[in-house]
């Protein structure tokens, strides 16, 4: 679920233990115009938008990067206004800002869109989880980015029991565009979100088997399967087991495996209603109120992060659930 945790930005930082914050991920609203069956962001709080006070607290931290992960950051004009505020603060503070979006409502403002370090657009199968009109808008927006030579565009694609047979279609789709920086596939993980999923996870052996047989995947440059330890938190597989499976499949040059649990890499989440939590807890919206702390109750967020990681060994890679 590395793609869900931070999008493509996670591969821009070191895969190792960090005793200080590197990335703060934000959900800036609780609104979305799509209905992806694998989405974990099923959370009701009574609020719809993040406040400027919460954003300002995030920018007071040592975090070098801010990643807006949802719910849909470009949902409406108010959400886009919040994005502009975050980007402006990023420029003033020197913090890099990235965003994950379904690409449906991108504004026709290329100068603004270029300001994101990573503009991650989700494409789960060609047209899957999008209405026909929505997918046409995604195409139109990708055409606009291509025409204006935007160099910060990544495509993210979640692999579940519904999309597993669409890998080649996604690759063929992205081949239309020359400006895409990276195409990253990431496996779906069932999380505690308060309602059942209608799709299932794909086991490691099947996942690697399908990708190893895809000629399009093997051939395409800057196209990777992104794995992290969270995907295997309920299995008995060790990091070494996973690495061996990757090597045995012949995909060692096509898989990016994040071995360090993302929280221990210096990554925290803040929800749109100001709850601070670990990267792992961020995936389980049913437990947000139990496994988080309100940002207004923290005197120092950086010290809070240090408290979280102080009880974990940087060498204990069996500690997945943080």
Automatic annotation (TrEMBL):
The keyword Ribonucleoprotein does not apply. This is Radical SAM core domain-containing protein. InterPro entries: Aldolase_TIM, Radical_SAM_PqqE_MftC-like, rSAM, rSAM_sf. GO terms for molecular function: catalytic activity; iron-sulfur cluster binding; metal ion binding. Residues 28-173 form the Radical SAM core domain. PANTHER family: PQQA PEPTIDE CYCLASE (PTHR11228:SF7), RADICAL SAM DOMAIN PROTEIN (PTHR11228). Its cofactor is [4Fe-4S] cluster. It comes from Thermotomaculum hydrothermale. The lineage of its organism: Bacteria, Pseudomonadati, Acidobacteriota, Holophagae, Thermotomaculales. It holds the Pfam family Radical_SAM. Keywords: Iron, Iron-sulfur, Metal-binding, S-adenosyl-L-methionine.
């Amino acid at each position: 679920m590395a793609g869900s945790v931070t999008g493509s930005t996670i591969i821009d930082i070191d895969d190792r233990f960090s005793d200080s914050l590197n990335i703060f991920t934000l959900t800036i609203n609780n609104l979305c115009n799509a209905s992806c069956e694998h989405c974990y962001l099923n959370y009701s709080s009574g609020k719809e938008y993040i406040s400027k006070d919460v954003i300002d607290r995030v920018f007071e931290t040592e975090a070098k990067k801010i990643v807006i992960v949802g719910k849909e950051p470009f949902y409406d004009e108010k959400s886009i206004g919040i994005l502009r505020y975050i980007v402006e603060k990023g420029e003033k503070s020197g913090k890099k800002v990235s965003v994950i979006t379904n690409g449906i409502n991108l504004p026709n403002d290329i100068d603004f869109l270029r300001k994101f370090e990573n503009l991650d657009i989700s494409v789960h199968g060609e047209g899957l989880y999008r209405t026909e009109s929505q997918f046409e808008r995604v195409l139109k927006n990708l055409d606009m980015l291509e025409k204006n030579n935007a160099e910060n565009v990544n495509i993210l694609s979640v692999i579940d029991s519904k999309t597993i047979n669409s890998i080649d279609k996604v690759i063929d789709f992205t081949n239309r565009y020359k400006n895409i920086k990276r195409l990253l596939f990431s496996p779906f993980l069932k999380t505690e979100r308060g309602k059942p999923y209608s799709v299932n996870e794909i086991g490691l052996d099947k996942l690697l088997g399908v990708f190893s047989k895809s000629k399009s995947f093997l051939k395409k440059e800057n196209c990777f399967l992104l794995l992290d330890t969270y995907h295997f938190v309920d299995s008995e597989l060790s990091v070494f087991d996973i690495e061996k499976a990757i090597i045995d499949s012949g995909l060692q040059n096509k898989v990016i495996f994040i071995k360090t649990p993302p929280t221990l890499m210096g990554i925290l989440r803040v929800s749109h209603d100001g709850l601070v939590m670990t990267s792992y807890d961020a995936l389980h919206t049913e437990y947000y109120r139990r496994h988080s702390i309100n940002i207004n109750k923290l005197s120092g967020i950086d010290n809070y992060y240090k408290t979280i990681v102080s009880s974990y060994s940087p060498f204990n890679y069996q500690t997945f659930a943080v």
